[in-house]
Design a protein that fits this description.
By secondary structure, this protein is α+β, with helices and mostly antiparallel strands. It has one domain. It is built from 3 helices and 4 strands. A 4-stranded mixed β-sheet has the order 1-4-3-2. The radius of gyration is 14 Å and the shape is globular. It starts with 10 loop residues before the first strand and ends in a 14-residue tail after the last strand. 19% of the residues are buried.
Length: 104
């Protein structure tokens, strides 16, 4: 079997219904910063959010300080626990049982 040359990254794709309007605003602001506290990128229908490796406590503290909702923190922690590298938050993403949903 040939050795892989390119690294592989795991991501999850969830509906924007799993974030609150205030999360959307904060993610938009962070995506426009040159040195964001939360690494994310805005695209036409949502966001890509980077999940760093290492301890999650610092990341959660940063999210709380930014004002992200408990629902967003829960989503981030779930993705981190499942060893994802990114969360794609997309208007056409999956609805996930057990995660809060918001209409906006």
């Amino acid at each position: 079997m040939a050795k892989k040359l390119l690294p592989e990254y795991k991501y999850t794709c969830v509906s924007t219904a799993h974030i609150m309007p205030m999360d959307n605003s904060i993610l938009q602001e962070q995506s426009e910063h040159i040195t964001p506290q939360l690494i994310c990128d805005h695209f036409a229908y949502g966001y890509w959010v980077y999940i760093p490796t290492g301890t999650i406590n610092e990341e959660v503290q940063t999210m709380i300080e930014l004002g992200l909702s408990a629902a967003f923190v829960e989503l981030f922690k779930l993705a981190w626990n499942e060893r994802c590298h990114f969360i794609k938050i997309d208007r056409d993403g999956d609805d996930v049982d057990g995660l809060p949903k918001f209409e906006w």
